[in-house]
Write a structure and sequence with these properties.
Layout: E1 8-11, H1 17-28, E2 32-35, H2 40-52, E3 57-59, H3 69-81, E4 86-89, H4 104-138, E5 145-152, H5 162-181, E6 187-194, E7 211-215, E8 218-222, H6 226-235, H7 244-253, E9 266-269
Parallel strand pairs: 1-2, 1-4, 2-3, 4-5, 5-6, 6-9
Antiparallel strand pairs: 7-8
Helix pairs in contact: 1-7, 3-4, 4-5
């Protein structure tokens, strides 16, 4: 029997990058997956990939910041699979500027995505998890559930990222609080803080040319100058950025039964101490 056989895992931002790898790895361990992405095409591609490998998956497309998203996300799991066992709050992006040039729109867009959305999702999940936990307790069973929130080395502060750093720092407080609140429901709540990971948001720029991605109708500049990547890589003990599948591995570790007595912790996944990229 696979370690996560019969478990139901919900992963935001799992149509691409790290989230996609988390979904694929959890599915390989036997979990049923609720895939989320802003866009239908990448979400459905991941669903198809999981099903082709013999797993089970459904998509819940849309922005995590939408007012109705949290309830819709949770109910997708309940209606399709009847349970919630793992929640990974992974969706995110950066929209940088120094504070004197940062607009309210920039501030709230990033805070809403990285902190408010996970709060809403976990709030919506609580009644479902509570009911399941009470039923299991009445039957004399202990069933451990998992929440993994995604933070960053930038939670310690990063130039031009007052919004992102604040959101990623705030998620650590939410993690520790829910670890205390939800322990009685047998839920492990932990965080993974990433360093420099190779994704479409951190791809190297060709010369001075900017790249953009469309997020909720906004064209957001992405990509990093090669010199910055090289400098950050030198500060990493392993000497290179991480790969999405390596980043996902840190998340998956905290979803497995081996982590059943770990809660309220933050695992740094950045190739060793050094860069807070």
């Amino acid at each position: 029997m696979k370690k996560l056989e019969g478990k139901v895992a919900l992963i935001t931002g799992s149509g691409r990058g790290i989230g996609r790898e988390v979904a694929l790895q959890l599915a390989a361990y036997g979990a049923k997956i609720v895939v989320n992405d802003l866009d239908a095409e990448p979400a459905e591609e991941v669903v198809a990939e999981i099903r082709a490998a013999g797993g089970e998956a459904v998509a819940c497309v849309g922005s995590v910041t939408a007012a109705d998203f949290a309830d819709r996300f949770i109910q997708t799991a309940v209606k399709n699979y009847g349970s919630i066992d793992i929640i990974v709050n992974n969706a995110g992006y950066t929209w940088d500027n120094v504070i004197q040039k940062m607009s309210d729109e920039q501030w709230y867009a990033i805070i809403d995505c990285h902190l408010t959305a996970p709060f809403r999702i976990l709030r919506a999940a609580q009644p479902v998890i509570s009911a399941l936990a009470k039923k299991e307790a009445a039957e004399g069973r202990e069933v451990l559930r998992k929440v993994v929130n995604i933070s960053s080395g930038a939670a310690g502060g990063n130039v031009g990222q007052s919004n992102y750093s604040s959101g990623k720092s705030g998620i650590l407080g939410l993690t520790k609080t829910l670890a205390k609140e939800w322990g009685r429901m047998k839920v492990n709540v932990n965080a993974v803080a990433f360093g420099l990971i190779e994704t479409r948001l951190t791809q190297a720029l060709a010369g001075e040319d900017s790249k953009t991605v469309k997020i909720e109708g906004r064209e957001i500049k992405v990509g990093v100058q090669q010199a910055m990547i090289d400098g950050a890589s030198r500060a990493i003990a392993l000497g290179r950025p991480g790969k999405p599948e390596e980043a996902a591995g840190a998340v998956v570790m905290l979803c497995l039964p081996e982590s059943n007595f770990c809660s309220g912790q933050t695992l740094y996944c950045g190739g060793g101490p050094g860069s807070n990229f």
